[in-house]
Amino acid sequence: MSHKTKAPSLLQALIPLLALIGMLSSSVYLFGEDSSYGPNQIALLVAAGIAVIIGFKNGFSWQQIEEGITEGISVALGAMLIILAVGSLIGTWLLSGTVPTLIYFGLELLNPSLFYAASCIICGVVALSIGSSWTTAATIGVALMGVASGMGLEPGIAAGAIVSGAYFGDKMSPLSDTTNLAPAVAGTELFAHIRYMGYTAGPAFAISIALFLILGLNTDTNVSLQRLELMQEQLSATFNVGWEMLVPLAVLLYLAATRKPALPTVFFGALLGGVWALIFQPEMVSQIAGEQGWVAALKVVWLALSDGVSVSTGSANLDSLLSGGGMSSMLNTVWLILSAMTFGAIMEKVGLLERFIRGMLKSAKSVGSLVTGTIFTCFGANVLTADQYMAIVLPGRMFKEEYERRNLDPRVLSRTLEDSGTITSALIPWNTCGAYMFSVLAVSPFEYGIYAFFNYLTPLIAIILAYTGWTILYLNPKDKTAEA
């Protein structure tokens, strides 16, 4: 039996969004850093309930809404499985000595005053090579956070540098899924899209590095060599440290660079870390197990995959750094994503998201306002749907016709989708990307967001270029305001 439904009003579209903003703000005020461990999830589900009530009022049945929820959650299932696999990878890589070895060599090679800028560049190069900001953050990023801790540097700035570099590399890599998705949605060619992104991503990345250099040079880096040497001694006393410990990382980066599927790649990396722990860290495994034997050792690796590890080095700070991981450590992140995707799916199913976007489109008179409207819509979609893919596909579908009507080259739309939909996702705590970065870097987006310079400079530069008319391409050559 079909139900006759009616389109929502703009006020109806705004009510759940405003309610969510109010509840999330209250959550952060009341619970601080603990807001992502339950309170934010409840806020998202209550806001989803408000959207359901509006849907009922407009003629939607619960069966229709439930179907929408199922479809919406299914979009994020792959991401959630990858997040769980990353938890296992961190657990076994801590146990195998892979992460401790990266920290050991990082303390030896990185200059504290140049650390932030160097981290940004390193993550940019790695993400460009493999096309994944997530893999970069979970591997190189985790190790760099350990180095930052050893040098007594600010974790929020360090995480901001890692996120900035990871998203620049991801955005400019032809291996990245979102970099392929945006031109596909807009109807343009991949490499033309990447070249066109250089006008926004290039300046944003250069400015970001300059800002990280300034922050590093103005940071009190009077870290005694004895402190760094002591940390290295504690690492080498606890783990067998050597270049061979980096083989799991090299294998993972190779699989990612050759475009193997993310989930089996990450989980294989986790299993390889477990094998490496058995081969190269028998003393550590036996110490954790409390007894000798292969059965006890296998149990430790098994638990590292599921619940992570707890390491004792004699230093409380180092113990905190080298303990954690496991699938169970990611369950709160999965809970947050499920709650956010439920809210976003209901908003889309009952037409509230589309109505919100149409309201923005009406005010877009010039090319500058159209690009700006697209950027804010993608950001809003990241907030509402909690997924960067949705933040590319939905606005891309809805704005494509308007870009064509104004004779704009498809690259204008594809670049705008990436300038906003992809990189602002990491700034939102309940988005899949923000929640993931929080899980692996142990720093909230509320804390690192202000230092993720690349992630908000890029859309800002895109808006400036759009309003000045520079590098805006038209399908008809005589309409070009600039060459790109």
TrEMBL record:
The keyword Membrane applies. Keywords: Antiport, Cell membrane, Membrane, Transmembrane, Transmembrane helix, Transport. This is Na+/H+ antiporter. Belongs to the NhaC Na(+)/H(+) (TC 2.A.35) antiporter family. It is found in: Cell membrane. InterPro entries: Na/H_antiport_NhaC, Na/H_Antiport_NhaC-like_C, NhaC_Na-H+_Antiporter. The lineage of its organism: Bacteria, Pseudomonadati, Pseudomonadota, Gammaproteobacteria, Alteromonadales. The chain crosses the membrane at residues 42-60, 72-94, 114-135, 142-168, 196-217, 237-256, 262-280, 292-309, 329-347, 367-386, 448-475. Residues 165-470 form the Na+/H+ antiporter NhaC-like C-terminal domain.
